[in-house]
Amino acid sequence: MTVPYETIDTPALIVDLDRVRANVEEMAAVAARHGVALRPHVKTHKMPELATAQLAAGAAGITCAKLGEAEVMADAGCADILLAYPLWGEPKLERLRALRERARVRVSLDSVEVAEQLGRVAGRAPIEVFVEVDTGLGRLGRPPGRPTAELAGAIEKVPGVRVAGLLTHAGHAYRTTTSEELRRVAEREVTDLVETAGLCGGGLEISVGSTPTARHAAAVPGVTEIRPGTYVFNDATMIRLGVATEATAAARILATVVARPASDRFVVDAGTKCLAADGRPEDIVVAGRPELGMRFLSEEHGVGRCPADGGPEIGERLELIPNHVCPVSNLFDHAHGVRGGAPAGELAVAARGRVR
Ligand SMILES: Cc1ncc(COP(=O)(O)O)c(C=O)c1O
User: Fold this and answer.
1) What is the pTM of this model?
2) Would the CB of 211 count as within 6 Å of ligand 1?
3) pLDDT tens for each residue of 85-104
4) How far is the CA of 55 from the centre of ligand 1 (A)?
């Protein structure tokens, strides 16, 4: 991304559409090469335009976390949605019934209780579910093997419900420190699910793949679908994990230096309200300026460090690559598209704030 951006006021979320296209095509090629379906998680961008671009590049469907996100994406024409979140309560069941009228919707879950609720929306066709498995993150799901096989068996007996597959999210891959450790997490993600599917009698879909693990996991026999989300933009965490570079980081916060209170300190007009409060501020990347770094963020201020003899001037604009880009998209109504280094129109972050 090169200047000029003079027309864009800061702080702003900037999305380089050339980089997005390259990222989208690269992951689509990974999935195609290994013969697995790609179902990107749209929580990263929350932008119907980018979901549509992912589908046009070959994605089989999309993944959403919240029903509200799925509704926005269905409005934009997304016809095949995996809701990777357990749904509970009559208001949501009512909305799920309506959503099923206009899209193929499958839901992940990890309990018989949620399955019994979902069975009530079945109507003419059973609701298809993915049983979530805990392959190490410790969030949702039972451990692989017998505990999950028993759960899947019990869910299969629930009227109106059909178990379509097993699903896991290897979010613990974010905590790995070597590429070898990352590869092991990715392989375990698949092999745990494939072995568990064997105990369930086989024939189940196997849905895996965060951005750090997706490229490895796609190559492991037995996987049927990968669900990376962050790859569309990448972020400082992906750079640290070695699965992205500054050149593939497509979403950045454009910020202006508003103060130089000390020779080794600068302040930009972007704090946690723009960069989110995820991760260590020191890990935020100041693109193209390796001599600069961030020290801490308050809500409206980003405080950075610089060499005493070479800091940025007041009024200079910097591009900051956030630690975790998904909550950053959630903070903006619009992103500024950039193509070939020039502003290329706004993108609506239409599914931001859809917490229900
Ligand atoms: C269930 C699920 N699937 C897929 C993803 C995508 O992972 P990533 O953002 O690492 O690409 C997430 C991210 O949080 C997730 O929660």
Assistant:
1) 0.96
2) yes
3) 999 999 999 999 999 999 99
4) 17
